[in-house]
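Archive maintenance. Older records in this collection stored only the sequence; we are now back-filling the structure field for every entry so that each record is complete. The fields below show one back-filled record exactly as it appears after the update. Entries are processed alphabetically, and CBS domain protein is next in the queue.

ARCHIVE ENTRY
Title: CBS domain protein
Organism field: Prolixibacter denitrificans
Length field: 150
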Amino acid sequence: MKRVKDFIYKDILSVNENSDLRRVIITMKRHRVCAIPVVNQLGEYIGCISEQDILNASVPQYMKSMYNTSFMADLDHIIGHLHDILDKKAFEFTDSSYPTVTPNDSMSYAADLLFRSKKTALPVLEGKMLIGLITRIEILTVSLNGNKLS
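Back-filled structure field:
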């Protein structure tokens, strides 16, 4: 059975929970990632921030009641609101329920979780410590050598 530990991507990128949102966006842009793990001062994983989390936070509160209708928020309002929150800390936007896996989880489990959650990557945790990521490309890599996930 293929395990996460056999395919883990260890060159991981993360941001500190006290980084401001401006730093988070710059880091995501520079490294071309759609989501980034967030760690505390001890390096312990606390969650992830995705582009979608930031976009959701950028929609002003008064527009959220109309969000699921045919109403489309004006880009200028979103950019203006985003500008207002750029100095807030990463932990305020961190999704602590973001799915994770452990090194001993099967790749079948990781693939299923990744696809069902519609995420681009899964943080790999050993206890509370972030030790790597499993991305969609790692799932696809399993098949290159004729291997199966299970």
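Update note: The first strand starts at residue 15 and ends at 16. The helical segments are 21-31, 51-58, 61-64, 75-85, 107-117, 136-141.
Entry marked complete.
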